[in-house]
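Hi, here's the filled form for the chain we discussed.

Project: internal
Contact: R.S.
Residues: 333
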Amino acid sequence: MLRIFHDTHYDFIRPWRIMVGVTVAFITIGIGSLALRGVRYGIDFTGGTLVQLRFTQPPDVGQLRSALDAGGVHEAEIQTFGSNRDFTVRAREAVRNEAQAGSADSVSVHIDSVLSRRYGPGSYTIVRTEAVGPRVGGELRRGALIAILISFGVTLLYLAIRFEWRFGVAAVLATAHDILTTLAFIKLLNLEISLTIVAAILTVIGYSLNDTIIIFDRVREDLRQKRPESLYATLNRAINETLPRSVMTHATAFAATLALWLFAGEVIRPFAWVMGFGIVTGTFSSIYVAGPVLLWIERRYPRDTGLRTARKSPAPPARSGTRSRAPVAGARG
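And the returned structure, exactly as it came back:
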């Protein structure tokens, strides 16, 4: 595979306007749906109780929901958990207040009594029960937002020191694009925002930054060689030079993510969904967001490079004893 993508000369930057139009449409649809319908938070953020049930015979989900509604457990989130006999029932904090209970065990007892009347004793077992208070949920929301903002600030500072501020701004905007597209993807798939999803988003941020930094590092090395070419050509050169590495890295990461999605179970599957999409959007933003943004910044705030001075100044005269075969481009007189 390394030989197939070795010494390529693809013009990756050329269709950037089309790609930007596609990603803007995707973000608009996802974020618009997010603004209209809101986020589906898990009990980690809203507070409530999770009860995992295992039935001896596969029940009908509609009848299970009706039984819970009749017993006062309204708007419960019911999901299969691995097999058609395993279910998770997520009852929010309001259910605990309605049941006049103060702990997850009391909510579990209430759900147990409701289902026992509907299905009979011994037809199911309660595997586990978890509870999170609403105050803890609010702290987790703030912590997740702070973690993302800190990652932005550290990234901008690191790239500004290692490269220059132009690269830092381009990388941060590309990462912001990845967060927006990932949120749109989460909403379109109607995934529940939990700590697992937050961990996946932070992983996507790191993965995308790594890909962008590798391309920018190659751009910096090519700029140091002061070739007589534009920044547009240098960006394309850098992407083509890192293409074999990118293909191998993305392919292996996606294969590992696919294995998690297939075999890791329901708890890890949302992480695999987000991470798989993050590999795609991280690669996309490294080429079609970070690159065009860097070109735009260069046009607005051009750098005072030796290459630009060399293009405007005449070439030095040839040394004595050296025969010139052809006139030097840009030389006068």
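Let me know if anything looks off before we file it.
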